[in-house]
Every structure is written in C-alpha cells, then in structure tokens.
Specification:
This protein is an alpha/beta fold and 391 residues long. The chain contains 14 helices and 13 strands. α3 links the parallel β4 (93-97) and β5 (115-119).
Length: 391
C-alpha cells in the first residue's frame, strides 16, 4: 500500500536487543507498515525489521555504550532529530514502548500537533525497588511515568491490572487503556509425539530465564512435597543475567536428590516445539508484564497452570489453573491431582483450550486501532471506550 503524510508514525529504540520487548515493538511496526503507514524509527544501528514502509534514521553517540552519559546523549540527540523530522515530514503521531521513550517523544512533540502513543510492557516503577540503587531508580521511573501520562495522548498497558495500577498512581489522568499480548504461534503445527505413558511418568515443563523473579525454586520445593513420584520436570532456559540463580537450582536438585527427575535443558531456540512434547506447563513467576512464555505454551495445546498473581490469573481465570505462591503445598496438591486424576487432567486441558481461544486475535490490528484513535480525537485526556472489551 502507498503511504501519505496522514499515515506516518515515528518510533524510537536505541539498538536491537533480543526478547519479548523488541519482538512486540517490531510486530507493531510491521502491522502499521502492512496497513500503509510509513514508519520511521530512530536508532543507533539498523534494526532487524524489513519492510518497504519502514525506514531507519540512524544517529551516532560518542559516549560509551550503556554508560549514564550514553543515555543522556542518546536521549537529547534523539529528541533533537525527532523534533526536526516531525516538523519537516508533518508526522502526526509518535508510537513508543516504555515511559523512557515516551518522555523522549513528549519532549520532541512540544510545540507541535504530534500526539504520542505509549505502550507499557511492565511496571518499571515497581521493578526498580528490587534493583541496585533502588531509590534513585524509583525516583527516575516515578518522574518518567508521571511526565508521560500527563503529556501523552494515550497510554496502553499490557494487562488490566497494570492499567488499574497506572490509573490509581496517576490520578486524575484516565487516558490509559490496555492491550494484552496474543498467542503468536496459534497457526503453527506441532508434531506432538509425547513420550509413551507405559512408564506412567508425567512430564512437567517450564520455559523461563533463570532468576529469582521467575521463581523456579518454588516449583521445586512443591515437587519435594508431592506424594506421587511418577513425574519429571524439564526446565528450558538459562541464567542470562548471570545472577547465580541457575546454580541455586542445581544446588537444590543435588541436595534433594532430584537429579534424575529434574532436567535443565538450557536455552533453546525451538522452545515451543519442546514444550509441545510434555504434559503440563507450569509458570511459578512472582511478577510479569505479559506472560509470553505462558501464551506460547497455550499455543502448543499443552495444559497449563500458573501462579495466582494478577497478570497470570487474568489469563488463567479458573481457580483450578492457579496456585498460591505463599504455600508450595498449593502447587504440590495440584500436581498430585494431575498425576492421579484423569478427570482433572481432562478439565485442565479444556480450560487451557478455552483460554487459548480467547487470546488468538489480531494484535497488530488492535495497535492500528489505537493509532487511528489518535487521528479522530483532538483530546484523549478524558476516558475513551476500550477496544478490548471482548478479551
């Protein structure tokens, strides 16, 4: 499709970094480009997303990559370039992910008619409390959040709970909506050659980076309390941040003689293919923005259960699918039931299929809906009808 001056979007991301954040950002760009929008992104390097309607505007930073000076230099250089391009090309909207890039976009839009749409993937303000220099990080994230919500046209959270939290923290501003992630592997065929049940073994699986927040040790603690011994647990993932959590998992399995039952498979490119071969996906996480690993597992038609936290319970909305993080026995009881009760396994499979059906939708189309909402409204500081009422 051809583009025109009325269908232009500018976005920002400093350089490619593998993960769910960039995956969704690129999907948003591709959806807009396929719909006829001209998408221009400002970065320090060309990003791995190709389309005739997607164009790179590269900037050069002299400071050491990742340093505090680098981020300051990148921030203000990008504001200058974005503002100049917006005036020249008559861009009508900025689309960014995170409050950091949102602040950049808002500053670049001052004095123009450009509107800013900010997608939020996680609660950085909350997460900053558990990182080094917590007080400084918390102050910065609080300022970024308040500034963006005050001056952006629309903020889109990744789940209902986050939307409610942002509205509560940023009264009286209410121009906040939500858009959950969809299941991206719904159309993929999986050759589900599950291991024979002649051995009576039930095989559980988790895909996750290995860190304290993902809470794999909780699942292992629960398994030590199980009465049933006919199970194996496969962990797909790595300690990519080198926190030492992976070693803690190995130490735990050694101390509790679980070496033959717990298999650490490391990071795998074909994680969904691996997940599809097992009987039950477990997500014991303590905190999520959007549980992509769970959505990907649902896409393989495996039965799923997860921790009873708002972000997970929003997907797994039946009590039979969630467990209490305050008590490992809660998960142990459900795993014992899964291994011993055929009717429970059937029920969990039905509930997982029902959840899967809810989250197979056109995510890129919803992004376009939000962008087009900016075009028809002069002011979005008042509540707008949600476009997600059917989810």
């Amino acid at each position: 499709m051809d583009t025109n001056n009325n269908k232009q979007v500018m976005s920002f991301y400093y350089r490619h970094k593998p993960g769910g954040f960039t995956t969704r950002l690129y999907k948003a760009w591709m959806g807009l480009a396929n719909s006829g929008y001209k998408v221009t992104y400002i970065a320090t390097e060309k990003l791995p997303v190709e389309h005739k309607n997607i164009h790179a505007q590269l900037i050069s930073c002299k400071s050491r990559d990742g340093s505090a000076l680098f981020w300051l230099e990148y921030f203000f250089r990008t504001v200058f370039v974005a503002r100049k391009m917006a005036k020249k090309n008559n861009d009508q909207r900025f689309l960014v992910f995170s409050f950091f890039y949102g602040a950049l976009a808002v500053l670049a839009s001052f004095g123009t008619k450009v509107k800013t749409l900010v997608f939020i993937r996680g609660d950085d303000l909350h997460d900053s409390q558990f990182k080094s220099y917590a007080s400084i990080r918390t102050t910065i994230h609080r300022l970024l959040e308040r500034f963006c919500i005050r001056y952006s046209a629309l903020v889109v959270a990744t789940n209902k709970d986050m939307m409610k939290v942002l509205k509560e923290r940023n009264k009286p501003y209410t121009h906040i909506d939500y858009l959950p992630n969809n299941i991206v592997n719904a159309d993929q065929h999986y050759d589900q050659k599950k291991p024979s049940k002649k051995d009576g073994i039930f095989r559980f699986v988790t895909t996750s980076v290995l860190n304290e927040r993902k809470n794999i040790l909780y699942a292992l603690q629960a398994m030590t309390r199980m009465q049933n011994t006919n199970w194996e647990y496969y962990i797909v993932g790595a300690d990519v941040e080198e926190t030492g959590y992976g070693q803690s998992i190995e130490n735990f399995t050694n101390q509790h003689a679980l070496n033959k039952k717990v298999k650490m498979l490391g990071w795998q490119k074909n994680a969904s293919e691996i997940v599809s071969q097992y009987d039950l996906f477990i997500l014991p996480t303590t905190m999520e923005g959007s549980p992509n690993a769970l959505l990907e597992a649902l896409g393989t038609h495996i039965s799923c259960m997860g921790s009873d936290i708002p972000e997970v319970a929003e997907l797994l909305d039946d009590s039979q699918m969630v467990f209490d993080l305050s008590d490992p026995q809660s998960l142990a009881n459900k795993l014992d039931l899964f291994c011993s009760d055929h009717s429970y396994r059937e029920k969990l499979a039905q509930l997982s299929l029902k959840t899967r059906q809810r989250y197979v939708f056109d995510w890129e189309g919803r992004v376009i809906d939000f962008v087009e909402r900016l075009e028809v409204s002069e002011s979005l500081t008042e509540p707008q009808p949600s476009i997600n009422t059917e989810i």
